[in-house]
Structure formats: structure tokens, C-alpha cells
Amino acid sequence: MSRTDTATARGQANAERRYEVQLADLPLSCPTPAMALWNSHPRVYLPVEATGEATCPYCGAHFVLKG
Predict the structure, then answer these.
(1) C-alpha pair distances (Å), 28 with each of 21, 50, 56
(2) pLDDT of 50-64, one tens digit each?
């Protein structure tokens, strides 16, 4: 279940613990551009291309590269 910020129609930042991303989403940052930023941590870029997975050091969100 995703949560949406009704003021911006963006997904709530870090609402889930696991995210699947596509090659088109690179370069990968957390929070992603689709997430609301007002209540989140500073943007950090994650090297998901290296191993196909990356974990945000701020919030622990886990990203998996698909495709």
C-alpha cells in the first residue's frame, strides 16, 4: 500500500522499505523524485548499478534494480 501526499500528489517519502527501480530511473537517489521531500532526509545518490541493489544510509530503504 502506497501513501500519497495529497498536497503534491507525490508518494510519501520512505513510506515503504523496498523499492523496485528500472534503468530509466537512474541515476538513483533517495528520496526519489516521485517522493515528497518536506519530511525526509537530504538527497543521497545510490550506486545501484554496481550490484543491482542498494540501501539508503539515512532511512534504510532498499532499492532493487529490475531490467
Answers:
(1) 8, 12, 10
(2) 999 999 999 999 999
